[in-house]
Amino acid sequence: MNDCLFCKIVAKEFPAEIVYETGRTLAFRDIKPQAPTHVLVIPKAHHADAAALAQADDGLADEVLKSAHEVAVIDGVAEEGYRIVFNTGPAAGQTVFHVHAHVLGGRDLTWPPG
Ligand code: 5GP
Ligand code: ZN
Predict the structure, then answer these.
(1) Percentage of residues in the chain having pLDDT higher than 90
(2) How far apart are the first and last CA of the chain?
(3) CA 81/CA 84 separation, integer angstroms
(4) Taking the model in full, what pTM does it have?
(5) How far is the CA of 31 from the centre of ligand 1 (A)?
(6) Maximum CA pair distance of the chain?
(7) Among 76, 102, 104, 107, which is disulfide-ready with 85 (CB 3.0 to 4.6 Å)?
(8) Residues whose beta carbon lies within 6 Å of some atom of ligand 1
(9) Segment 104-108 long-range contacts (CB within 8 Å, at least 24 positions apart)
(10) Which ligand is nearest to the CA of 94?
(11) Tens digits of per-residue pLDDT, 50-76?
């Protein structure tokens, strides 16, 4: 996906503040943070959304979820609590169509979300 912003971040063709990396996942800080911790966790391989990630093989979705938890540990919010969000599709507010888990924490998060 030549025109995908997050593929460019994976390829190091576009800068990002990387927080954590595994063989198949990358975590970097959101450019417009909505909470003290706001990190995006992506599979390095391009999958458009959570539905596509769920169908990927070899436990890739598991690895994204584990990386999301590891990010919370690294940022020190794992104990107090944090939120993992996959905006999936335009009506949910997805704007970048390379699947990403938002890891949000470091403040009280209200429910329901907007
Ligand atoms: P979505 O709306 O698709 O769920 O989330 C996309 C997220 O990507 C947004 O929170 C937005 O702030 C973030 N974002 C957009 N462009 C960039 C960028 O160039 N770098 C980083 N680090 N985050 C970005
Ligand atoms: Zn991509």
Answers:
(1) 96
(2) 31
(3) 10
(4) 0.98
(5) 6
(6) 39
(7) 102
(8) 5, 16, 28-32, 40, 87, 93-96
(9) 104/34, 104/35, 104/37, 104/38, 105/35, 105/36, 105/37, 105/72, 105/75, 105/77, 105/80, 105/81, 106/35, 106/36, 106/37, 106/75, 106/77, 106/82, 107/35, 107/36
(10) 1
(11) 999 999 989 999 999 999 999 999 999
Please, what is the Cα angle at 104 between 113 and 34, to 5 degrees? Answer: 70
What are the angstrom distances between the C-alpha of 60 and each of 22, 43, 73, 82, 114?
11, 7, 20, 21, 29
Q: What is the dihedral angle through the alpha carbons of 5, 76, 65, 12, rounded to the nearest 10 degrees?
A: 30
Model pLDDT for residues 76-106, shown as the tens digit of each residue: 999 999 999 999 999 999 999 999 999 999 9
